[in-house]
TrEMBL record:
Keywords: Membrane, Transmembrane, Transmembrane helix
Composition bias type Polar residues, residue spans: 13-27
Protein name: Sodium bile acid symporter family protein
InterPro entries membership: Na+/solute_symporter_sf, Put_Na-Bile_cotransptr
The organism of origin for this protein: Aaosphaeria arxii CBS 175.79
Amino acid sequence: MPQRNETDRRSGDMNSKPVTSPANVSPTKRGEDWVHNSDNSIQHNRNDAGLTNEDQTKPDNQGKTRSTRSQSLVQLLKWFVQDQWFLIVFAILILVSSQVQVPAAQQRIKRTVITYLSVSIIFFINGCTLPTKILIENYFRWKVHAFVQLQCYLVTSAATFAIVSLCATNPNFMDPWLLVGLLFVGSAPTTMSSNVVMTRQAHGNTALTVVQSVLGQFLCPFLTPIILQMYLSSGAWYTKVLVNGDNYGELYRRVFKQLGLSLFMPMFVGQVVRYFYPKECDLVFFSWKMAKLSSISLLLLLWQTFDQAFGSGAFAGLKPSNVVFLVFLSISFYFLWLGICFVASIVWLPKKDVIACCYCTPAKAVALVVPLTSVMYLNVSVVEQSKLQIPVILYQAFQVAIGGVLTILFRKWVRPEELAEQREHRACAPQS
């Protein structure tokens, strides 16, 4: 048989190759132009463009990533609003009080009503929520009491006097009334409202904070005037603006009246209510979360303080450099006193007691500093008294703001200990 040439053989091979139609193409075969599915035309265009499967899934993955990040951001924002609503409302109240104030004729009535009412609510709730046995046990911890009160009155005042002495080297730098106001801040006792609320939010030993607040307020009329007089007798130029008064009987009357009506009596009534209705107290203040009324009362107390400050024109006439420096000093003082207390207490106290001490030592009571400025010294005008109170007011704003943020860190720090206590309680429950 004649042998076919190369050209005929190639032509025959091509003619003998079966022709495949689109119906015979496998749907899963890679590299084909025709794919039998509902999106065959879209897939055909993607193959023509040279896109791989990985390239096709990139936009979908990017969209899912963006969606996940958005959801995480929303969840974080929601958590922050729920956890730190106190600070958000506090900032709004400062903004409102700077624009609108209660008329001057009603300032005294507003201050009296809100001060007594707010503090009374806070300590009534403490009385209803704290077991009497725990309160009594904390009252007998005299070593912790001495530790906290020595820091509140001596350590903080000594540090403040050192810094004020440095600031007073240039008489043209700071207003003398502001320097004296800083000494009032350092010599003031621990507050009786914000530290209790913050300790509860940070899962610290609230009973210990309550006891420290009561002791600090009780010692204030006796210790604060003596400490202030000790520092102001140095003869520095900024002390020449003061004229000492001797009406300490009025100071004692006012302070102990406030302590009795807004602290001791509500606390006692709350303890009586808890003694007869313990389950109802837990239901109302914990299950129904009515303990948040303490935070609301504290916000009301802070609002009236700033309303009075802006209404009296305390910030008018001050040099901007002095205000900025006071802000810097307020933040520095708080972290300095907090750091000293934390380092000194962590070596010998449990974590919850450390939290209580850290909210007692740096916190200062505005409610007692204000009457001190009006009783201890004579011939102090309204403007000068407002200047005395500016360092106290600014410090209070930052102690509340920083203390609110620290509740997050303290809760995280004490969480392992709380989980261990819960596991131990569950392990002992079947045996009891």
